[in-house]
Design goal:
CATH architecture: 3-Layer(aba) Sandwich
Structural class: alpha/beta
Number of helices: 6
CATH topology: Rossmann fold
Order of helices and strands: HEHEHEHEHEEHEE
CATH class: Alpha Beta
Helix content: 25-40%
Strand order of the largest sheet: 3-4-5-6
Radius of gyration: 17 Å
CATH superfamily: Formyl transferase, N-terminal domain
Strand content: 15-25%
Largest sheet: 4 strands, mixed
Number of domains: 1
Shape: globular
């Protein structure tokens, strides 16, 4: 999130950050967003008694109130470790993007770096993709490769992947903002 906001601030991405939403009141990203002059809101999920769809309706309401609509908005998930409801995905079809610390379709879900090290992969990396109703299964926007060293641990690999994430996510947001991504089925084409 910070890499995206800083790229926007440096005018490398032609997009207006409307709001940063967190489900955790102590999220580090809230302070970073505020420091960079971006509005923030907390919608706590802990102790929320409603369904996932009801929780997502609250998020959609805040997005709409801040001008992030299904017609003109972009929702970037960064550190948001919740599965989004099918209604949210459908409403914002091809307008929600996520980043994953692996070369999808390999190692979806949690602990991707550990999975890569344990599996003995020679390469891993990062994937920025559109969100669909599956877990880490949406059309891929771009990927960046990271070599897995023989002595890598989950932590050492994660650190190198994070550096690539800071490059890939802002680049994907820029491509989206410049309307350079075309989606055809599962495939994307960058113009």
């Amino acid at each position: 999130m910070e890499a995206i906001l800083r790229s926007i601030k440096r005018e490398k991405i032609p997009i207006n950050p409307a709001i940063v939403i967190s489900n955790k009141p102590d999220a580090k990203g809230l302070k970073i967003a505020q420091k960079l002059g971006v509005k923030t809101e907390i919608i706590e999920s802990k102790g929320f008694n409603g369904s996932r769809a009801e929780y997502d309706k609250k998020i959609i309401s805040v997005l709409n109130k801040n001008g992030v609509t299904p017609k003109n908005g972009l929702v970037c998930l960064a550190g948001f470790m919740r599965i989004i409801s099918p209604d949210f995905v459908k409403k914002y079809k091809n307008r929600i993007i996520n980043i994953h610390p692996a070369l999808l379709p390999s190692f979806p879900g949690l602990d991707a770096q550990k999975q890569a090290v344990d599996y003995g992969s020679k390469y891993s990396g990062v994937t920025v993709h559109f969100v669909d109703s599956g877990v880490d299964t949406g059309p891929i926007i771009l990927q960046k490769v990271v070599k897995v060293d023989d002595d890598d641990t989950e932590e050492t690999l994660a650190k190198r992947i994070l550096a690539k994430e800071h490059q890939a996510y802002p680049e994907a947001v820029r491509l989206f903002a410049e309307k350079k991504i075309k989606i055809s089925g599962r495939k994307t084409k960058i113009s």
